[in-house]
Amino acid sequence: MDTENHSEKVEKIVEEEDGGDLVRSFKTNNHEVNDEQKKVSLMRTFVQTQDPTSKDVDDLTLRRFLRARDLDIEKGSALFLKHVKWRRSFVPNGFISESEVAHDIAHNKVFMQGYDKSGQPILVIYGAKHFPNKVKGGIEEFRRFVVYCLDKLSAKIPTGQEKFFIVADLEGWGYYSNCDIRGYLAALSVLQDNYPERLAKFYLIHVPSVFMAAWKLIYPFIDNNTKKKFVFVDDKSLKSTLLEEISEDQLPEVYGGKLPLLPIEES
């Protein structure tokens, strides 16, 4: 079913719920409302019929889920409603505490690092400090850690911005010691399904050739909207490439900038 048919289907559901008032208002004031705004409003009415708690969510959040599905209201609504259900179950207290992710915090592998030139917060990840948690329930703790980090990063997004910038430093990454395909796919799923349209860019730096074997396994699971945001940065142009996006006073000292590394739990 194409996007237009999906939209018509949702419009019919909304008309049944509100007597057609919302849809009629768009048709009579079409010059005042663009297509995306119309779809966000229709999506809001629709998701509230499915989950009344959706009324507390702002339009920008709904718009991100809608954009993640190429403005298809039915698909965007399904993604959002799945997220709401997941969030209620996975983060029942509204946040992940440090005690719930102690294993991953102890590795000192994630840092919150200032803002890029667009005003988007930056996260730096050290891949060689990540070790698969092989104990029972270890993958669930890692998922919690991903949510812990992404929630902290999202909380740093200033008004007027919607995205964040991630740098993954893979210097010293080893296939046998650090490779964690299950963990990487779990993190990717959390990002794509629950933080859609939050990622501005994902730079991979100091990438060893052995990492490409893992990348070939991960890449097929990245959706098309996200694939273009991953950028492999050549070592020879690392500092200049980073400085194109990040001012020197916001760039970590380890990359020639002036900002000390700040562990995620201290941010």
Automatic annotation (TrEMBL):
InterPro entries: CRAL-TRIO_dom (IPR001251), CRAL-TRIO_dom_sf (IPR036865), CRAL/TRIO_N_dom (IPR011074), CRAL/TRIO_N_dom_sf (IPR036273). Transmembrane segments: none annotated. It comes from the Eukaryota. It holds the Pfam family CRAL_TRIO. CDD domains: SEC14 (cd00170). Residues 98-263 form the CRAL-TRIO domain. This is CRAL-TRIO domain-containing protein. It comes from Papaver somniferum. The lineage of its organism: Eukaryota, Viridiplantae, Streptophyta, Embryophyta, Tracheophyta.
